[in-house]
Amino acid sequence: xxxxxxxxxxxxxxxxxxxxxxxxxxxxxxxxxxxxxxxxxxxxxxxxxxxxxxxxxxxxxxxxxxxxxxxxxxxxxxxxxxxxxxxxxxxxxxxxxxxxxxxxxxxxxxxxxxxxxxxxxxxxxxxxxxxxxxxxxxxxxxxxxxxxxxxxxxxxxxxxxxxxxxxxxxxxxxxxxxxxxxxxxxxxxxxxxxxxxxxxxxxxxxxxxxxxxxxxxxxxxxxxxxxxxxxxxxxxxxxxxxxxxxxxxxxxxxxxxxxxxxxxxxxxxxxxxxxxxxxxxxxxxxxxxxxxxxxxxxxxxxxxxxxxxxxxxxxxxxxxxxxxxxxxxxxxxxxxxxxxxxxxxxxxxxxxxxxxxxxxxxxxxxxxxxxxxxxxxxxxxxxxxxxxxxxxxxxxxxxxxxxxxxxxxxxxxxxxxxxxxxxxxxxxxxxxx
Length: 433
Description:
This protein is mainly α and 433 residues long. The protein has helices at 2-14, 65-68, 71-75, 95-98, 106-117, 127-135, 141-151, 159-169, 173-188, 190-197, 211-225, 228-248, 255-268, 273-281, 284-292, 327-335, 352-374, 380-387, 397-420; strands at 18-25, 34-41, 59-62, 83-87, 122-125, 301-303, 321-323. The chain folds into 3 domains: 1-197, 3-Layer(aba) Sandwich (Pyruvate-ferredoxin Oxidoreductase, domain 3); 211-272 and 351-420, no CATH class; 273-340, no CATH class. It has a 3-stranded parallel beta sheet, sandwiched between helices. A two-stranded antiparallel sheet has the order 1-2.
């Protein structure tokens, strides 16, 4: 947002108008919002304060939905005079690093802005997505937003002055000018721009898969991940659960089968060194690079292999190292040795993390066996909670290890509940605020 303020300040000066820009710059998303108070007047003498007072903003140009819907921004609006142009991209906050189940209340935020300004004067734009697809870089989204607002007649400056200001700024001139222009085009004819970025001959978005399709997709992935025998192992357990659930609850939604199909696959397909190598060397990564970038560029891979990474002297955690583009060739070779996974010859299998991952698989199979032994209507919720527990295990390294410990405590409670015949299950998921 500070870039937009600087551009408008330049442009106003070029037109001989008065302008003041007050940037309140925190560290976006983590320690505070970035807010710019921008005032433009016919003469500099007409500006008596740099800060916009409550109810005096004519335009809320929200480059971040979370900040735009915050109390400080909303307080500046008045439905009689204010308009809002807001980027509807959902940007994760620091809360997601502490709570993986945190909810981003996008719709509630949008409603807050609409109530403050009015639906007719509120415009939500997928600016980040459009800017990335049009120009290959999400950093262009702020100038894209400026162009959108300008085309709606909400910026009291000329396009020539703004484009000249972008040129004088001297930073990513062509990118910023194109972003401004594409923002204008989108405001003028959003359907045409959408058709441009999504031509009719482009493959449509895949439709959600039903249970059978999801199971088959997982089977196909496990064949690539390890082998046909590995995939057969997965399918056998899922089918046993499906048969048992259909007998116990005929005609009902197969929620237990869905849970096992997802979570057993998640545990079997843990992302180890061989899988990382396969994903980088199977051609898809290269295709995505070529689709998004052109010209000369250099690849660097930041990795922290347990057998090579040094420990941070302050917190004892492994530190990532940078590896050059030669790693693509190394990945290609390493992927061919996936047959060693889990065997006595697996050089990576001796690490604590890999041992824990394999133990999780065995423990989960035992838990499913326990569920099948005791499955009935009274404990269906408990069984489902136990089958879904691996969903709580996320991340890598020490983050994953911490999640494993928390899940193990919950699993013990659920197992005892199943074995004792108790109906109640512990509350595993906090309700979203």
